[in-house]
Inverse folding.
């Protein structure tokens, strides 16, 4: 058979690792074209919440596809977007009054950064500095790489990245250093601080408590610095609540949502903004409009999927499923032998496997991923950090299969 022309993300094709061909998916299961099946223990890169091919979401997609597929969103609108925006403002913090659509987590963050800078410019205070948290990851576009951790992910693109101020990660017992650094950056006139609330994903599933998040937000508020919450991964129940920020009583000025917004079925993202940020761009002067869009902004089919997801949250016991999964994760993580620094944040469990290397390029990762694949489980270690982030519908037996793979490798 002729080799595939596909160039896969985060894949070194020179290693000739097998790439399974998946024919269909249902619940937590991925079914291969060759008859094999895998438990999706990482929600296909953290997106699938209720399970693959959820009937209500699939039905909404099919119904909308038969009615309208795509519409320019600059100066035009459609009912799925209007409905979704109303429903989002109804369940998110009331201060977030405006909904701007985009199509991925990276673009949601880019939008937030641009809104923050536009806010200060239009107020006549052109603050430009962005403050970020050590080990953070916000995407792979130029702006999001700039506000993420510098290293192997983006070394080749360094000439394109803009400068930011980085504050240290708030390790237990060393939080004051983080507070002091953020305080100094805010006093210096920063425009915005961007953070992944409670859980840093690609940075190694690093966890910090709600009290720290609340303290960081309070520092920003004292100095009038905009607080951007990148909840692309942490929202929709991953950390145990609808938003991670709610555990800290924090309401951001800008909120980035994607991944679970559609239940993980199709790409869609939103950036929710406070009325003050919207008002700063509101004018009879066309030069003050918010200059951002993409061809598929607020795609009707994706918006219909998101509306179905919100209906599931309203009408099904999603929070109970999340609480059950969090408890099951806690039990299995506590019983897992041979791992270091086990940690839990809502439905996400993580730990370090024994290794003489650390960091994303640790050789343990491809060996572990291959062993999991052979055992019928999709797991994808971050260096020597292994994590379990399954759809909420996973059963006790299926979760046991996942942890058996980890225990066998530890």
């Amino acid at each position: 058979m002729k080799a595939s022309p596909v160039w896969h993300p985060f894949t070194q094709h020179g290693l000739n690792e097998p790439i399974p061909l998946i024919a269909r998916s249902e619940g937590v299961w991925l079914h291969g074209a060759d008859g094999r099946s895998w438990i999706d223990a990482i929600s296909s890169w953290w997106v699938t919440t209720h399970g693959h091919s959820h009937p209500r979401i699939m039905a909404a997609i099919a119904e909308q596809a038969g009615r309208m597929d795509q519409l320019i969103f600059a100066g035009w609108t459609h009912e799925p977007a209007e409905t979704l925006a109303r429903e989002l403002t109804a369940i998110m913090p009331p201060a977030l009054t405006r909904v701007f659509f985009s199509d991925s987590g990276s673009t949601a963050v880019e939008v937030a950064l641009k809104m923050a800078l536009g806010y200060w410019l239009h107020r006549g205070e052109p603050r430009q500095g962005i403050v970020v948290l050590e080990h953070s990851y916000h995407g792979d576009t130029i702006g999001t790489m700039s506000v993420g951790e510098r290293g192997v992910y983006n070394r080749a693109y360094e000439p394109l990245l803009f400068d930011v101020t980085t504050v240290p990660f708030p390790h237990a017992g060393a939080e004051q250093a983080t507070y002091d650094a953020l305080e100094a950056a805010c006093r210096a006139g920063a425009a915005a601080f961007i953070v992944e609330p409670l859980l840093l994903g690609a940075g190694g599933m690093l966890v910090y408590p709600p009290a720290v998040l609340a303290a960081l937000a309070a520092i920003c508020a004292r100095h009038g610095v905009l607080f951007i919450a990148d909840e692309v991964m942490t929202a929709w129940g991953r950390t145990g609540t609808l938003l991670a920020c709610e555990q800290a009583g924090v309401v951001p000025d800008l909120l980035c949502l994607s991944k679970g917004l559609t239940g993980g079925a199709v790409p869609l993202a939103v950036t929710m903004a406070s009325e003050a940020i919207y008002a700063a761009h509101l004018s009879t002067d066309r030069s003050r409009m918010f200059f951002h869009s993409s061809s598929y902004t607020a795609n009707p089919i994706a918006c219909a999927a998101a509306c179905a997801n919100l209906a599931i949250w309203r009408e099904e016991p999603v929070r109970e499923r999340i609480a059950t999964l969090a408890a099951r994760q806690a039990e299995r993580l506590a019983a897992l032998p041979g791992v270091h620094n086990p940690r839990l944040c809502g439905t996400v469990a993580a730990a370090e496997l024994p290794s003489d290397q650390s960091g994303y390029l640790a050789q343990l990762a491809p060996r572990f991923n291959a062993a999991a694949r052979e055992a019928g489980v999709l797991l994808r270690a971050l260096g020597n950090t292994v994590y379990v982030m399954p759809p909420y519908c996973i059963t006790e037996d299926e979760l046991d299969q996942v942890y058996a793979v980890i225990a066998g490798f530890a």
User: Anything to note?
Assistant: The longest helix spans residues 105-122. The mean pLDDT is 96.
